Amino acid sequence: MLFKKHQQVLDAALAACSARHYWSPFIESPSRQLHPKDAHANGKAAFEALLQKPFSLDQPAEIGRTGHEVSPYTQRPLGIDYPKIDVDSAMQASSDARLSWQQVSPEERVGLCFEMAFALEKQCFTNAYATMHTAGQAFLMAYSGSGPNALDRGVEALTYAHKAMADVPNRALWSKTFGRAGEVTLEKSYRLVPRGTAVVVCCATFPMWNAYPAIFANLATGNPVIVKPHPNGILPVALAVRCIRKILADHDYDPNLLIMAADTRDQPITLALLQHPDTAIIDYTGSQEFGLWIEKNCADKLVYTETAGCNGVVIQSTDNLDGMIDGLANALCGFSAQMCTSPQNIHFPLSGIDSDQGRIHFADFEQLLATAINSRVDNPVRAAALCGAIQADESLAILARLRSDPCVDVILDSGPYQHPEFPEARTATPLVLAVDAEHHALYSREHFAPVCFLIKEQDAEAALNNATQLARQHGAIASYLYSTDPVYKVRAENAFADAGASLWCNMTVPMPINFAAAYSDYHITGLNPAGNACLADLAFVANRFRIIQFRQPL
Amino acid sequence: MLFKKHQQVLDAALAACSARHYWSPFIESPSRQLHPKDAHANGKAAFEALLQKPFSLDQPAEIGRTGHEVSPYTQRPLGIDYPKIDVDSAMQASSDARLSWQQVSPEERVGLCFEMAFALEKQCFTNAYATMHTAGQAFLMAYSGSGPNALDRGVEALTYAHKAMADVPNRALWSKTFGRAGEVTLEKSYRLVPRGTAVVVCCATFPMWNAYPAIFANLATGNPVIVKPHPNGILPVALAVRCIRKILADHDYDPNLLIMAADTRDQPITLALLQHPDTAIIDYTGSQEFGLWIEKNCADKLVYTETAGCNGVVIQSTDNLDGMIDGLANALCGFSAQMCTSPQNIHFPLSGIDSDQGRIHFADFEQLLATAINSRVDNPVRAAALCGAIQADESLAILARLRSDPCVDVILDSGPYQHPEFPEARTATPLVLAVDAEHHALYSREHFAPVCFLIKEQDAEAALNNATQLARQHGAIASYLYSTDPVYKVRAENAFADAGASLWCNMTVPMPINFAAAYSDYHITGLNPAGNACLADLAFVANRFRIIQFRQPL
Q: Residue A110: CB partners within 8 Å, gap ≥ 6?
């Protein structure tokens, strides 16, 4: 039984979710020493073998072929096509698959999801290249971000699903005395029933990081899944779907528990999926605007969203100036700030800050940050490893527009860097803009591009007020504080909490400051406009199934 | 510390929720032997002292007086008025109260809620009379239904709230090695943050049974509550609000964590409360129509509903004919079928059923049921104890309309019974109608009145199909099956589960067949139109709070 097979891993995951310490059952690094000798080369070859041909995915409801992905590294089409599905037929196949799946015990479903997770780990190298050439991530990030780190978030959600389901017993005996008539004993049984088909909408830049949690949470609780990849992020999803469908079939379960619904920008099918009467659950990752629309207009479905905010950094003081600057520079360069935790708005007091290197004024800070960024992007090898490529042309247009905005001073201009391996890569170094605090309209939303605003605040209080107000009104997924003042720190922690935002304080190198750890960092508070779902808490899973009871006298 | 004080009770409640056995920390019976000598007399006197005068409730935002309750037993006004509130001001007071309350530890909030529950138990006799003279329940039901049974459901919800909150640790240490740079250790803290003001809308017939779970679930998770009683069910709620506000104040907490928003039918304020921008959570008990409207139109709030369905009884066979007939007769008479678990549609095969007394045909069943009901309502003392009074005039109008419907045969007519204590009581004995199965329109919705339909089904299969289809399309809170055939029972259990309905099988006297037990019977599946909330599971509580995190290097 698969539950028994993975029970030790589950127990360790349960312990990690309780203690929220570091833990992973996966190999996080692609380092040669940690993998079979040819794993990397084979994975890469497997990816290359996929190019310029139809992707073989045996699933129902196919009515043609679709897909038009362009590699951010070559800016040429991958040349892969995928099944185009008929939505109604796919929905029917999904509903049909539920009928047998909901009869499978919750424990066995959980065990099978673990089996899937470890099978998916085996194709991490292939998926890393697929993610590179669709999202634009550098190899190392693509490896972890679509591999172990994404699987960790998936196992985390799976663990919470197990916890919520295990909270309901299978049976009970209930005895009660009714007056003189005497004792009555009832035997009761409780079955966990899924809600119905879940539609999982993936984003372009981190195709699997939110997809695995949603897929595992849904499958474990008995709900079949139709996964809708981003039009330029199909391949990583397709690889995962093919792997999971194989695991299902190998264990004699209906592979239609997971169906991929690919589309193109020109012929989108997302709305047809979301609004389909059979859709019971929606897991959405993407823009804040569309996420809020779904929350409002799909009230008859259970809706989980992770979208975007304008992540702020409040700088009040530091006892590690170099570490702070390096940490920020890394985060601004990292995947060209296309991460949902990338900082965007740096609130810095015009009055300057105290540091371990003396008083630092706004102009000092500008130059230190610009220098730190330059030292990273001036070296093409380092730039490539850190920045990767730009996922979409729109980001370049954003940079062009912002650079020439009359309200900004360009502290560090953005330009392409020459990728050492892919001369045609769509690249852009960080654009650093100084702006007066009053120009709210400019920075009060996410600009999905490598850009940061150095916002001139009157003082640390104004910085805190502005940053928390932005989090409250426009959302925040990660917020940052640098301060050595215990009183200010507590005030900031409370102010961000009041704004519905979590706060990461004094994060410096060597850790990537915006790294969010499965089993430990709750991702998304649900208390600001950046989404309503949390990776992972009980609320993420407890409502995906319902309880139906049978009772009769013993 | 109040948490410590009540920890043993909490532990017992946690055990009961896990094993789902019978348990209660409250005295379920009003029997003299179980209470202080004068408890009953004092409680009754306290109720009578409330009549014909203003109800003293010291709460903010009062802009006048309101309330017009009529006793179903005297059909005269209670003559009590209550604070009329300004919605905006009450909302503001509620939001203000949250600021300090959310700083209180979850454990202390849970402890204080237990303190409230035991304080509320002390006024059970007074509240029983208040419930009698607003809802129309007989004394015994009013005692348990607004007292121990309601408090049990409240403590159950409170226990789940504790469980969900205890799942999140206060702090964590997280250590991870980042390449050659070495190990980084972060200390993390997690705070549980309430969503905001919860509006709890109560129903007329069981004012506290759903109110206590909602109030305790919200208060425990940090959310202040504005409770909106039914216009004819204010007094039971007012008594509870006054008691809870006193407990809060006695322990130096802001009493505005619970505010009552009374209104009248002529000047309703429910919509203003539900649609207020500060309202974050809605707990609604009432009609299915309005419940579905809220689910659809208040998508920006967290919505929990318990409404109504057309509860069905499928009769295929029985080995205890007398017990079944008596059980059904009790349930049809009990509080004049004004309970959310009262059966309404009895599906009986025209081909008859097997029983321990031989073959029973439709005509036999009609007569047996009519006789059993008559034996209960012919005796005014027994009728009064069992049926109580009719809450609203509308129910009498429903009876008048149905009795003269051309599609029905009146098997047993409804009429007033003479209440031995209250000669003016609004009473009605059960109306029993026989109807052909084809007349769906007649019985495919809840008729809120003492009426049942004996539906002539071709056979047991047709009965099952019809009953499950009704549950699926029109909702069901309790469904009943009588069968001695193990194969048919399994099929029925699965068919009802497929329709999203729980099933109670072969329930006979001495137990009231429609009794739903806290800590054991999950109430409402959320999979059919009779509501989306479940008393009580993790989904009922886990999303009422959110998690905000602070992290920094150790």
A: A3, A6, A10, A158, A161, A162, A165, A220
